[in-house]
Protein: Acetyl-coenzyme A carboxylase carboxyl transferase subunit alpha
Organism: Leadbettera azotonutricia
Amino acid sequence: MEIQAIEKKVAELKKLIKESGLNLSEELELLETKIQASSKTETAWKRVELARHPDRPYSMDYINRIFRDFTELHGDRAFGDDPAMIGGLAFLDGRPVTIIANQKGRSLKENMHRNHGMANPEGYRKALRLAKEAEKFHRPVITFVDTAGAYPGLGAEERGIGEAIARNLRDFSQLKTPLVCVIIGEGGSGGALGLCVGDKIYMLENAIYSVISPEGCASILLRDAGRAKDAAAMFRITSSDLLDFNVINGVITEPPGGAQTDPNASAAAIKKILLKDIKDLSGRNPSVLVRYRNLKIRKIGHWNEG
């Protein structure tokens, strides 16, 4: 509504300029700048809402549509199993692969079981165990990222959530097997980073990837949690932003209205990318994969003034 009101003002101003011959270019420019800023804010927040949409496909929805014969494996061999982090073996058009993914729940009961997709340390240790196993048997690794962040509870801190994520960052960067990551919904903070070190990283069109939630950013930087919309636009968390920053390799288009309107089409788009990249990466020397993966990581954040 705010954008429409400003656009109406601009139209009136243009009409006044034409009729009166007044020089109101500064006022006009100011209003057009406000329109652009408001448009960016609304677009960013719409992406946030779609990334969190309750009907949006989760990892298992894509796994069941893209792969065949998925066999889930459990446990980190140290503490226990974490239902918020799933992983196992499957076939991608006949090629054996290892899948690791965040998994949210649909119902209240399932979300309690899955901890809303927020993994504990044992989840990240399970992920690393499966990735190491994939390396040993020369299987490509595919990760699906969809989490608001790692679980920040007392037990998670006591069992070393920071260390578990840091170890994943280090060891995934050195993994001598192809790694493809797909951010399908929320990519929140270190919880997402623990699964998002890869040779290729993609985002679905309406996914988000950020160091903190818009609400958290608004509370800390803007001193007002109610300004989450402004924060979402300000710190550039959409797929197009991340592509501009060269953090990701590409954006996977979603059906109009979001992936939840046609999960089969979204799954088909992801599968097409995976088939192409897994075939390409599997033909490369593993040491070369590691070298270029690390070069890609080290380039993130570099910028040239002017």
Summary: The first strand starts at residue 68 and ends at 72. The chain has two domains: 1-19+27-48, 55-206+254-298.
